């Protein structure tokens, strides 16, 4: 059984809703976020990742609350490699430090 990570676009500001509802259906979901001022902020606003095997019926995901659509390039679903997902996971905790440091530079 071969699995791929797929990119899902969520409805505006409903990443948490989509993550919760997809997880409750038994799918593996990855919602990268960081905590800023005691609030969770999405790293990729409006997007989450779902890990699906090739032979699974993914159609119920389309009617899941919080999900807008699968991201596609033409007729092909956008797939994300394990290496890229692993890199995002590894660097997720460092992102807040980079964000805070970048925000110190203000336009004049």
Question: How would you characterize the overall build of this protein?
Answer:
- The protein has helices at residues 15-24, 59-62, 82-103; strands spanning 3-10, 28-30, 33-36, 39-42, 47-53, 67-70, 72-73, 76-77, 79-80.
- The chain is an alpha+beta fold.
- The protein has one domain (3-103): NusG, N-terminal domain (Alpha-Beta Plaits, 2-Layer Sandwich), CATH 3.30.70.
- A hairpin with a 2-residue loop joins strand 3 (33-36) and strand 4.
- The mean pLDDT is 88.
Oligomer: single chain
Q: In percent terms, what proportion of residues is strand?
A: 25-35%
CATH superfamily, by name, is: NusG, N-terminal domain
Helical element count? 3
* Number of domain modules: 1
Record keyword descriptors for this entry:
two-stranded antiparallel ribbon, alpha+beta, single chain, five-stranded antiparallel beta sheet, about 110 residues, Alpha-Beta Plaits
SSE topology sketch:
Layout: E1 3-10, H1 15-24, E2 28-30, E3 33-36, E4 39-42, E5 47-53, H2 59-62, E6 67-70, E7 72-73, E8 76-77, E9 79-80, H3 82-103
Antiparallel strand pairs: 1-5, 1-6, 1-9, 2-5, 3-4, 7-8
In brief, what are we looking at here?
This protein is an alpha+beta fold and 108 residues long. It is 33% helix and 33% strand. Strands 1, 2, 5, 6 and 9 form a 5-stranded antiparallel beta sheet that branches.
């Amino acid at each position: 059984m071969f699995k791929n990570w797929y990119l899902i676009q969520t409805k505006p500001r409903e990443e948490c809703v989509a993550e919760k509802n997809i997880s409750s259906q038994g799918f593996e979901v990855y919602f990268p976020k960081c905590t800023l001022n005691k609030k969770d902020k999405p790293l990729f606003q409006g997007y989450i990742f779902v890990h699906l095997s090739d032979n699974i019926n993914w159609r119920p995901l389309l009617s899941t609350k919080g999900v807008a659509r699968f991201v596609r390039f033409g007729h092909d679903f956008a797939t994300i490699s394990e290496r890229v997902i692993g890199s995002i996971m590894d660097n997720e905790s460092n992102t807040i430090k980079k964000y805070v440091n970048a925000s110190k530079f203000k336009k004049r």
